[in-house]
Amino acid sequence: GAGVSQSPRYKVAKRGQDVALRCDPISGHVSLFWYQQALGQGPEFLTYFQNEAQLDKSGLPSDRFFAERPEGSVSTLKIQRTQQEDSAVYLCASSLGQGWPGYTFGSGTRLTVV
Amino acid sequence: AQTVTQSQPEMSVQEAETVTLSCTYDTSESDYYLFWYKQPPSRQMILVIRQEAYKQQNATENRFSVNFQKAAKSFSLKISDSQLGDAAMYFCAYRSPGANSKLTFGKGITLSVRP
Predict the structure, then answer these.
(1) Does position A100 have pLDDT exceeding 90, yes or no?
(2) pLDDT greater than 60 at residue A1
(3) Which DSSP letter does residue B100 get?
(4) Which of residues 60-99 of B touch A (CB under 8 A)?
(5) Closest-CA distance of chain B to residue A2, Å
């Protein structure tokens, strides 16, 4: 597609519920990143994929967070047993990779845990 | 680890005037990239300008220019002829070279433009 697409745009979850957030990167983009942006803060790195391989998951805050990109295109970020502190905007970005410095971001999913 | 600091939480500028947004960073690397991103209420991060650390010349993109001071680890953004559409959050970001490198963002600054 022409841009990075994320869905849903908004998600309200009850505490303890599992959620799945989807990212559809630009076709042909090798690199895919997930970021978490708390209200009034800058985005913070969660995890990185190169094609289907998850090369860095050092930013995932707990084992309740899990990400996958099984075919090297669409990626899903899953959060199990959501808690209020998980409320944030989750941004996805993709890049051509191979050291290409430019990223294209999606519009994010705003998750609210009640 | 690299850090990015934006110490001004908010700034305001009169339409058609010039404003400068400040950013400092800390790194032990000699080669890296610096970015300014704009985030409007739509939430999408939009790249405003990019600077490669090995380039001495400051980057310029139309009304946007940077003052890159490598020794001082300073990277400020100047917006000339400010427009109402420039109102947004602006984030300074750092990236190491290499395909796997992530962006490290500052906390951002909210820019308002007065008509």
Answers:
(1) no
(2) no
(3) T
(4) 91, 93, 95, 97-99
(5) 14
